[in-house]
Structure to design on (341 residues):
């Protein structure tokens, strides 16, 4: 640490500076350098955050004397020249500088063959190089859900809604986050059947997603079918002005509802068990992001299992592929094509 108050390099876009500024203040992190994926915006984001400009993210990772590198908008980082980007992340780890990212890194499943990322994904070291934030699975609400599930048992069906502003996570980031939650609660589905809807202003263009999570914006719904007959539904958007997270779970022991107000377990034929949550004093997405950044700077390690990147990336790619083909796609097929056992 550079002192009692941690400082950071921030990489973001101009439309993120207001929210990210609030998040950093809440986390107790001082921005000292800031840059943007679009070089012409570097001066603006630095002025907005009240710090010096930074025009090279790789250089910041390898040499900037800071306590945190926070990538709020990754741009092409982790998407093109990915071996060089991996080297920069490894050098940051070697300097004991934690790296947090809102965008999934790497951003696509099918671009990894023949790169050093395959080894990082296979041996699990990627989770030590870069921390995805804010992760729904690392919130107190999900901690409470996991405790309840120890008694409730295996979910039979579930639905997950994750919506919020793009400044706190694009649709691609929310798809990655949602698939991480689904994999934890239900496992890896046999088939993913998804549909993408572009924002209203772009509807006439008949846009379809590509193979990358990067730059994806709008709404997405998906139906996930599991080999043992279970099922899950997902509703995602980066077009909501506020962050909202809702889960509904059905099983042999009744139903569970989880939202900002708390957790309710309705037993078959019995009284519900309620676990209320404290009312949020900020946008829940901002609060979760600030907490996770503060913990990262304080060296608080995750108490949860790391992201299963091969599984989650195969699930996200199956969803993106399904949006283009109009039919269900199999994550297992994608994983074999990724050449990650």
């Amino acid at each position: 640490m550079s002192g009692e108050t941690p400082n950071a390099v921030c990489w973001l876009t101009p439309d993120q500076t207001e929210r990210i500024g609030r998040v950093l203040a809440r986390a107790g992190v001082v921005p000292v350098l800031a840059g943007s994926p679009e070089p012409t915006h570097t001066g603006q984001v630095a002025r907005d955050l009240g710090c010096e400009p930074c025009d090279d993210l790789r250089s910041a990772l390898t040499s900037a004397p800071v306590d945190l590198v926070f990538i709020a908008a990754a741009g092409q980082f982790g998407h093109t020249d990915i071996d060089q980007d991996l080297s920069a992340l490894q050098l940051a780890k070697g300097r004991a500088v934690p790296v947090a990212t809102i965008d999934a890194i790497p951003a696509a499943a099918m671009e990894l063959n023949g790169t050093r990322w395959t080894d990082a994904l296979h041996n699990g070291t990627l989770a030590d190089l870069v921390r995805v934030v804010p992760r729904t699975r690392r919130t107190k609400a999900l901690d409470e859900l996991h405790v309840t599930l120890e008694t409730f048992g295996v979910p039979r069906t579930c639905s997950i809604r994750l919506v919020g502003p793009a400044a706190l996570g694009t649709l691609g980031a929310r798809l990655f986050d949602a698939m991480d939650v689904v994999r934890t609660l239900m496992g890896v589905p046999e088939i993913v059947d998804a549909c993408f809807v572009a924002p209203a202003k772009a509807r006439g263009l008949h846009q379809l997603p590509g193979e990358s999570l990067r730059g994806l914006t709008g709404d997405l719904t998906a139906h996930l079918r599991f080999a043992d007959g279970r099922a899950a539904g997902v509703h995602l958007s980066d077009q909501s002005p506020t962050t909202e997270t809702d889960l509904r779970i059905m099983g042999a022991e009744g139903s569970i509802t989880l939202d900002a107000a708390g957790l309710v377990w309705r037993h078959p034929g019995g009284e519900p068990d309620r676990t209320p949550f404290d009312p949020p004093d900020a946008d829940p997405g901002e609060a979760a992001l600030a907490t996770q950044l503060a913990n990262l700077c304080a060296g608080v390690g995750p108490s949860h299992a790391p992201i299963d990147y091969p599984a989650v990336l195969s699930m996200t790619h199956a969803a993106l592929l399904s949006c283009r083909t109009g039919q269900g796609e199999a994550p297992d097929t994608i994983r074999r094509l990724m050449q990650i056992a």
Notes: The radius of gyration is 20 Å. DSSP finds eleven helices and 14 strands in the chain. Residues 200 and 263 are 33 Å apart (CA to CA).
